[in-house]
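#dry-run=false #mode=assembly
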Amino acid sequence: MRMKSWVETANGPDTDFPLQNLPYGVFSTGGGAPRCGVAIGDRIVDLAACEQAGLLDADGSFSAPQLNDFMALGRARWAQIREALTALLAEDGNRDTPTVAMADATLHLPIKVTEFTDFYASKNHAFNVGVLFRGPENALPAQWTHMPIGYNGRASSVVVSGTDVIRPMGQLRGDDGPVWSACKRLDLELELGAIVGVPSEMGQRVSVEEAEEMIFGYVLLNDWSARDIQAWEYQPLGPFQAKAFATTISPWVVTQAALEPFRSEGATRDNPLLPYLQEKRPGLYDIDLAWSLNGQVLARTNYTTMYYSSAQQLAHHTESGCPMRVGDLLGSGTISGPTPDSTGALLEMTQGGKSPIQTDSGERSFLLDGDQVGLHGHAQGDGFRIGFGPCLGTILPAKE
Amino acid sequence: MRMKSWVETANGPDTDFPLQNLPYGVFSTGGGAPRCGVAIGDRIVDLAACEQAGLLDADGSFSAPQLNDFMALGRARWAQIREALTALLAEDGNRDTPTVAMADATLHLPIKVTEFTDFYASKNHAFNVGVLFRGPENALPAQWTHMPIGYNGRASSVVVSGTDVIRPMGQLRGDDGPVWSACKRLDLELELGAIVGVPSEMGQRVSVEEAEEMIFGYVLLNDWSARDIQAWEYQPLGPFQAKAFATTISPWVVTQAALEPFRSEGATRDNPLLPYLQEKRPGLYDIDLAWSLNGQVLARTNYTTMYYSSAQQLAHHTESGCPMRVGDLLGSGTISGPTPDSTGALLEMTQGGKSPIQTDSGERSFLLDGDQVGLHGHAQGDGFRIGFGPCLGTILPAKE
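#status=ok
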């Protein structure tokens, strides 16, 4: 069943933004103030203007330069606004709804990232990387099949698609002690990011079902990684500067509501999970994912290859009583399939750089200056798709 | 040289808050709005009221419920306000300066913690813990003497002294796979926290000298740790839920200006540091530290036992281009001397629980429900001391 919009470009089978999607973002036009919007075809609904015109009621939160105020209104209001927007934009809706051409808009970081937590929940990825860092016998940590392993990332360096990424400097392992150098093994990581819209209290443990109710939506997330900095620094307390220089997210937050029809089972479990991590219904979504180098797609995978869902990760995040806040960003972990052409990072695809790949841009072990990486994702419906829009970043030379 | 105040309780040799200190905090009285204050003897200068009365000029930032707005005004304004406060509170100052009795005030979290990063910079602590977790041959990681190892902590669970700490639940290693249990090895960590008051840009690497200029002040910091949760979860990506349930800081931020006379050399270096970490002058302070269990001091140490200063840690934090923000909190890492009675954690003092200690409250390997831990610290001047006030937390039973 396709739903048609009076915005004609929303009705094709290949648009990322049909009427069924309605992802949220933050945009500005002509140097004006950033405000909240929703993508539809090749246009953006100006939610702030809609609110001012009395077409929507979100307590003024759409005039903010990020979605946090709107997310904080809670699930009931999210559903109301989705329903109202669907009515306004449907074929028989209100053609006076204020929109701007996406081509005329600048897209900004859609949320104020309160804190950023990154997980490690693809078994293919965890095994592949584990082999490279610790050898095949220690590849998968003992607790891996029992809990979604996560670590705190850095929120201040989360940027929106299109922001250039400066190759980081750092300490690398050398023959006679460390050397100070530009990163030589710069990598991408293809991930989904879940955005928390409903907070939890300190000391409150949330169930997987409650956690799912806290998630507002999802973005594509590129967790850029400096593999040589990481190898030297990461034991025993985890990655630090190797991942602190930039994390890129897509500008449109695809809501859980839009993804609901694509709910899907994940991988078979090696062992039963402890009760607090058990799901009553499938928690993943059937989302086709890909990443490209300078426009050439080099790998394709699917979100259903993951071992843990974002709801399980969020439940685990609160197991100790850790409070979650509006704007918390949870990276899924690199999403890799079982084969080299389905890996979400060059580290895996090139076997730690030992097997360079041939691309239309030449041979690559890791990323070169000037390379543009794109992440792409959509859930395929019947005659329409729920897309994320691209998540792009270009590597600039290090500032030595 | 002692400086006298018209606030008589500020003039004794044992007060934490003489005229030379003037630490900043946030307080409220009688259920009123939290606002900024400065401790002097047994009283608090009401900075918001001072500003309203025209005695101080801080652009209204003292009426905020945290110090971030004031910190964001920058070093020149910090110096101006310190000079003005010193004049107002000196023996010949203005006795109409609005103050409240500390006994009548509620103290709040002094800053909005933007992000929390914890380091691992005491060689004694790193070695002692390394032996317990990985054995003596792998105790000190190879990069330890070359860089201040750090990891991102969780900001949302940073609480002010006096907040009760609920014993966390979590996954523990069991004989037949993990078990879900209350933490059985609950520990403290005695640390100092440095607070960033001047931000840095993305892609900007700051030198150690520049980093020092970015630090507003210091607090005592108890990085509560669930050692059994930590042991099961922490490889390969570092501590997560084991430290996410609570981190307690003292309510008063002792400024770098007040600590300046106590600047001091640290430990001898095992090897030269890379240039970006080298200090032009000593970056530690001679601060006597102690921790107590139910009022009984169990260990004493000094901040000069550290291998890396907060300025070095902050410089390292920006080496990849990671931007720092007003309100970033940097934990020093556990501060341990070389002997059991100078260790900053029970893990070290009891050899991982194998050698319980006798205390006035009975035998302890780790913390019991009802235990109150206090951190204490001051720099000793000639006839006065620059104190932090206590940093207290009491353990409540787990919510199973």
